[in-house]
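Why does residue order matter? Because the sequence determines the fold. Keep that principle in mind as you read this record.
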Amino acid sequence: MHNSIVTDFSDRKMLEKYSSAFTLSDMEIFIFPELFYPLVLANIMSPVIWEWRSDPWFKDIEKRGFTFKANRIKQFIIQNYVFNLDLATWGLTTKTREIDRFRDFFDMDHLRQSNALFGYEGDKYYFDIDIRKHFGLDKFNSDVIPYWKTETIEAMTAFRMKNNFTTGAGECVSLSALYAATMFVIGRIPLEKIFLIATPLHSQNFINEKEGLITNNRRIVTKNMWFNGTSLSEKARRALENEKVTIVSHISGYIHIINNDATIDRKAYSLFSSRLREFLITDLTNLIFINFLRFKSKYKSLFQFECECSDKKRYISLEKMFEYEHTSKFNVSAEMRAQLIKEIEGDEFHLSPLSGKIMLNDVERIIEDNQGKNITVVEDQFNKLNGTVAPETIHEMFRDLEDFIHTDPKLPDEHKNYIKTVVPDISVEDSRDTIIRSVLDNADKSELSLLTLYVYRQMDMIDWLPFIKAAIERNPVCFNDLKGKTISEVYEILNGMSDQSIYDGNRLALPDEVWNFRCGDGIEKALLMADLIISRDNKAEVLIDINNNEVGLKYNNQHFDFTSLKSFKKSISISDNSFEIKCPTSR
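Structure:
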């Protein structure tokens, strides 16, 4: 049996970091990048993913190859979790409030350069559509921003209990942490091969196996898919094409775009950088050129294709051929072109070449004859073709083509001060119990392990102060719904909810989780009530007394009783933005 680990929270930065381990907002992870990987480990420690090993969907998966495993995991996640970025899920805060939280130990100008809601404009796609309008923030004043808390696997799975949801759900950071944990537990992919990549507007993973694999929200992207020109690959490419990578997180540590210190293993980061760059570059082939035209649709109109029908030459615009792709199982690529042409109506073809359009047949010969040569050589050959396409248009197309076949990711500078840290030794051969024991055994000397216990909510092993701070200060979801209700009425509502926590054992949900999923242990319900009381009157004094299954809340000469299925003895005093937690040894 491990004893609770004592941590000094007299330093405000330390308290904010460990309190952030429970709410895990996008901003908190950006400021404290060491919080990112503990979520992966917390999900690995959770019983939820280990139960999937018994699901018939994954029967004998350990005997299959990497591609099969990845696709099986992808389909399971698609079927069981949706992407959710609703503003109401985790509530709203303000820029002013968040800046006040962190200004003493983080440069706010750096925050504005790297966070979309604080003025970042790196991805012109989001900038052009007005990011606040895109996320539904235009109905609030410009100071209001969402919390966007990253969900644990328990919270993601609990969405199925929420109105209008039939499955689990999560935002992109949650999904990347889920994918990383599932690739390890179900796919038996070593953690050393899994890298989490955060940009200001997105989060995805790179799995360093075979040619590499990117997980993107609920889906996966292989190298071939990256260059196939479809709408899925277009969305997957957006972040790495347009944004700076702010954090790369790994079992060995992290590297941050701003921080000079990095804890990631230097060789691991170098390998990641080179392998990711290999993934994002390809040679120009006829197939890649067709995929590019699918990707950049404005250039389709420049081309026509010559074919033979009943021994007669026929001509068709490339635009028309791409139109038929949408309703066919065949596509414009050379391998399937003949089958696609058979499905095209006869009156779509012309007896004479189309005026002003470049012949795709000639283009493909040029590309074939210049394999491996510089792209400028191919461009020069293009300009010699018959057609009335302006050289400026050809030049613009080739610059876009060059960007398509070669993405240069804007990674954190590798010239950092690398600090070696202690991390738990975790293998794909380990059982869940062995992994939990490894994290526990390292928690007194490894911050990664200790933070994992906080993210995991292992309340009998950690200090409660950061948890109570998070619960009272950053859980606003119930406030509007309970507006106008007396505390006695709120008590009756809470008593009418299920007493089952979404977390097993001696782990606790936050008030927002209790309210979103309409269930909670007596301790969790009492904390929700305290959260609401303090939000209405920050001068209020609330006392929560926990004696194993008996939980009492005292406020304003009123006493409210709850029942707990957890095993704790705590006395929690909340008053005037201060928190005191005592552990009585006897009653």
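The first helix runs from residue 12 to 23.
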